[in-house]
Amino acid sequence: MDLDDQHEFARDGALPAKAKTLWHGRFTGGPSESLLAYTVSLPYDQRMWRDDIVGSKAHVRGLARVGLLSNDERDDVLRALDQVGAEMETGSFDFAETDEDIHTAIERRVTEIAPAGGKLHTARSRNDQVATDLRLWCKRELRDVALRLVEMQEALLEQAIEAGDTYLPGYTHLQRAQPVLLSHHLMAHGWALGRDVSRLLDTIDRLDVSPLGAGALAGSSLPIDPIGNAADLGFAKAFDNSLDAVSDRDFVAEAVFDLALIGIHLSRIGEEWVLWTSGEFGFVRLDDGYATGSSMLPQKKNPDIAELARGKSGRLIGNLTGLLATLKGLPMAYNRDLQEDKEPLFDSVEQVTLAVAALTGMIATATFNVDVMQAAADEETMAATDLAEYLVRNGMPFREAHAVVGAHVQSCLAGEGSLAELVMADPRLGAEGAALVAPGVGVKMRTSRGAAGPAARAEQIDSYRSMVQSELAAIRELASFD
Ligand code: ARG
């Protein structure tokens, strides 16, 4: 564009002067196209239509309870809201050019259907409305994420049980450390998911407060009933401070954090499975339905789900940091900045939901290469700690035992014999020590509570099962408030 022409663009195409915005009374000119293009949230907040209708119906009943709507008006508006709901459900709802967001769209349509629709916004602002809708949305969607996580925990448990006594190397620093049961390794991820479920339930518990009745920022001079509305909507309580009610997005930040941490847990699984499916590890084979091929390399079978679980965690972390930056420094009370809460939240919920479903399928259908895993864990030096603990049982201080065994490992690596031979020749270790180096023995030595061996497994499976049971009970209890 020629710089001299810039002034021509000072005001771009505007809608007619009296275009029906929610604020047209105060304005002589209509909104510019660029304002609308920049400020609309309809493309993404449409997904809250159910919550907006539920919230509006409760508001209408509340207005009637305190005499601000007659019973006939109430019934007309409730019917109109139901009709809008049906139009939304069937996709026949006609959006208008000036529908800035889902709240505007629904209110406009209700007033077209019912003459009393003009009373719908009595003592309500979009500020308390949007906060109410978003809390309702979060309650339902976060509960759904929790339920999917439980399904993933169940898939991990099933594979763990299937794995029986199969063992593999446990790693520290990605160096082979000690043999661990495959079931133990799989359940380790399930316990992390258990904390995720519990965090989501905590977040739901804290966000279970109705902001409806806070108005734009300060409540109302009309005799509204926020407590009755809260109960009607199934919220545990109503707000105590109207400024806080309309400006609080802690619950969105918490939800997006919970989802980011879930993403990190999924990413850790993803990274392991990328390694495990590689030719170098060869621990797992993916089912064809959960792997991809290469467009050029005919032999390839790629773990794309695992890679995307790893890759998309970056985006989930980005959603959190972006939202926190948006919230920081906002003065009381509502600011339009707060509209920026929705895209990160919706995106995080959607991405985690997709990831959990794909990973659950990938894990549930995978085949473990038992021989390869166990051979990797049967490397003689993996028994070093068991040899040191054998010496400790016979009274040697651990530091000294560590040095004795370390010296044998060094000699073994220097080619002076196998570790079993060197141990056999050492009178402090002898045949009993050599037996500890034999394949499959090491994993059985992990006997302490919560340890990686078969002795502790049954107890762990029991407590894992009761974790899953109580998660399901808590999730069901939430569902009963719908
Ligand atoms: N779409 C807006 C949002 O999501 C609705 C609230 C607009 N409120 C206002 N006072 N302009 O935040």
Kindly summarize this structure in a few lines:
With 482 residues, this protein is mainly alpha-helical. 59% of the residues lie in helices and 4% in strands.
Features:
single chain; Fumarase C, Chain A, domain 2; 482 residues; two-stranded parallel ribbon; binds arginine; 3 domains; mainly alpha
Structure report:
With 482 residues, the chain is mostly helical. The chain folds into 3 domains: 39-122, Fumarase/aspartase (N-terminal domain) (Fumarase C, Chain B, domain 1); 127-375 and 461-479, Fumarase/aspartase (Central domain) (Fumarase C, Chain A, domain 2, Up-down Bundle), CATH 1.20.200; 379-438, Orthogonal Bundle (Ribonucleotide Reductase Protein R1, domain 1). Helices cover 59% and strands 4% of the residues. The chain is built from 19 helices and 6 strands. The chain has helices spanning 33-39, 42-45, 49-65, 71-90, 102-113, 126-163, 182-207, 226-232, 242-247, 250-276, 304-311, 313-327, 342-365, 370-377, 384-393, 398-413, 419-424, 430-437, 457-479; strands at 167-172, 175-181, 209-210, 237-238, 284-285, 367-368. The strands form 3 sheets. The chain has a two-stranded antiparallel sheet. Strands 3-4 form a two-stranded parallel ribbon. The radius of gyration is 31 Å and the shape is elongated. The model has no long low-confidence stretch (mean pLDDT 95). The structure holds arginine. Residues 41, 45, 101, 126-127, 130, 334, 336, 338-339 line the site of arginine.
